[in-house]
Amino acid sequence: MRKFQVATEDEIKNAGTTDIYFVRTKEILEKEGLSDLKVTAEVTTGSLPHDWSWGIFVGVEEAAHLLEGIPIDVYSFPEGTLFHPYDYQGTREPVMVLEGRYIDFCLYETPLLGLLCQASGIATMAARVRQSAGDKTILSFGIRRVHPVLAPMVDRYSYIGGFDAVSSLIGAELLKKRATGTMPHALIIAMGDQVKAWKSFDKHMARDVPRIALVDTYYDEKTEAIMATDALGKDLYGVRLDTPSSRRGDFAEIIREVRWELDSRGFNKVKIFVSGGLNDFSVKKLAEAGADGFGVGTSVSNAPTIDFALDIVQADGKSVAKRGKLGGRKHVWRCGDCLIEQVKLASSLAPACPKCGKKTHPLLIPLIAGGRLSEPLRGAEKIRDSVLRQLKQLSMS
Q1: b/e code 4-15 from CB counts within 10 Å (16+ = b)
Q2: What is the pLDDT of residues 234-258, one digit of tens each?
Q3: Is 324 exposed, middle or buried (0-12, 13-18, 19+ CB in 10 A)?
Q4: Phi/psi of residue 222, nearest 5 degrees
C-alpha cells in the first residue's frame, strides 16, 4: 500500500494515469486492423476561465518528457507563449499538434491534458497578478493549499508566470533559486511576545536574510509596525501584514496608515509586504495604496484550469472533425509586434499581419520528431523572461 496517493513517474510515463476508454479504443483499433491509422490531433480550448482574453501556455517541458520515446511528431507553441483561444477571425488556435499512428499516443491524451491544463491555469493567474503588481515584488505562497506532490509544479509555473521568488524548499531547489519567506505567526505565539520573536529572528538568521517583521499578531498593524522599528532599528527591512479578513476592514487604508507612521519616523525605506487571500484584483488596489510586495497563495495555486481538449482533425490523410471543431492540419502565425494570431491551413503561405502589415512567424514549432526531442528545452529563467516581454507588449498594445 502506498503512503501517499500519487502516481510515480514510471506510472505516468507508462500511461498508468489514462482513462479506461482509451485502453478499450486501442484494443478495438488493433483488432479491427487499424493499428497503422495515422492521424493529426490538435490541442485547443474554446474558452478561458472568467472570460480572460488571453492565457499563458505552459507544461510543454513535461509534455515533452511524457511523449518522448513515442514514435510520433509533436509541434507546439513555445513554453510561456501568451495565447488567445481564437485568432482574430474567430478560429480556434491549436497550441499543440500530434501526428502519428493513433494507437501510439491515444493512451497519453489524459495525462497530456492534465499536464497542460492545470499548469497553464496557474501560469496565467500568476501573469495576471504580475500585471496588477507592476514592478513590485511577488512571492509564491500557495503550496499549503495543494497536495504536497504538486509543490514544485506550483512554484515553477508561478515563477514562469512572473513571480519573483517561491517559498517551498523543493520548488526553489528545482528552479535553482533560494527559497524566500518571512516568519509565521506561530513563531511569535510560541515565544509569547512579538518583540522577542523579532529580535530572535534578527539574532539567529544569516545576515543575508531580510529582516521582515510580521506586525499583526496581537495589536493594531501600525502599532506593531512602530514597535518593530523600535526593536530592530536600521536592521528592519520590511513589515508584513497578514491580517485576517475578520479584522481587516479597509486593507488599503491600513497600508496607507502604516506607511505614514513609518515615514514620519524616518523609516521611509522600510518596505510593506502584504499577504492573505490576495488575487489579481486585490493586488492592484493594494499596490496603488503603497504596498511594496505581495505573498500570493491560493488564488494562484488553486487557479482555474484551462479547459484544453485533444481532437483528431485529420485521419488517413483526410480532413475530419467532430461537431464544433474544424478539420485539417493547420498552422498558427503571429505578428511579433501586435501579438495577433492567424490560423491557416498547413498548405497556406505565411500571411501578413492584418493590423500592421508586417511579416508573421509560425508559433507551432517542432517539439518531438520521431520520438526524439527536436531541440534542447529552455530553462525556467528564459521562459519567464519571454512571458514578461509579452506582458509588456500586451500592456502597450
Answers
A1: eeeeeeeebbeb
A2: 999 999 999 777 677 899 999 999 9
A3: exposed
A4: -75, -30
Task: Name which of 176, 64, 60, 47 is nearest 119 in CA terms.
Answer: 60
**What is the Cα–Cα distance from 143 to 145, expressed in whole angstroms?**
5
Task: Give the start-to-end residue ranges of the domains of the chain.
Answer: 9-120+304-396, 181-296
**Bridge partners, residue 319, by sequence:** 314
Q: Which CATH architecture has domain 181-296?
A: Alpha-Beta Barrel (3.20)
HEC-encoded secondary structure of the chain: CCCCCCCCHHHHHCCCCCCHHHHHHHHHHHHCCCCCCEEEEEEECCCCHHHCCCEEECCHHHHHHHHCCCCCEEEECCCCEEECCECCCCCECCCEEEEEEHHHHHHHHHHHHHHHHHHHHHHHHHHHHHHHHCCCEEEECCHHHCCHHHHHHHHHHHHHCCCCEECCHHHHHHHCCCCCCCCCHHHHHHHCCHHHHHHHHHHHCCCCCCCEEECCCCCCHHHHHHHHHHHHHHHCCEEEECCCHHHCCCHHHHHHHHHHHHHHCCCCCCEEEEECCCCHHHHHHHHHHCCCEEEECHHHHCCCCCCCEEEEEEECCEECCCCCCCCCCEEEEECCCCCCEEEEECCCCCCECCCCCCECEECCEEEEECCEECCCCCCHHHHHHHHHHHHHHHHHC
The fold for domain 9-120+304-396 equals: nicotinate phosphoribosyltransferase (3.20.140)
Nearest to 389 by CA among 82, 55, 78, 58: 82
pTM of the model as a whole: 0.96
- Structure-block grid coordinates of residue 389: 516581454
Q: Are residues 345 and 338 in contact, defined by beta-carbon separation less than 8 angstroms? A: no
- Residue pLDDT, tens place only, 277-331: 999 999 999 999 999 999 999 999 999 999 999 999 999 999 999 999 999 999 9
Q: Is the dihedral of CA 145, 150, 152, 157 positive or negative?
A: negative
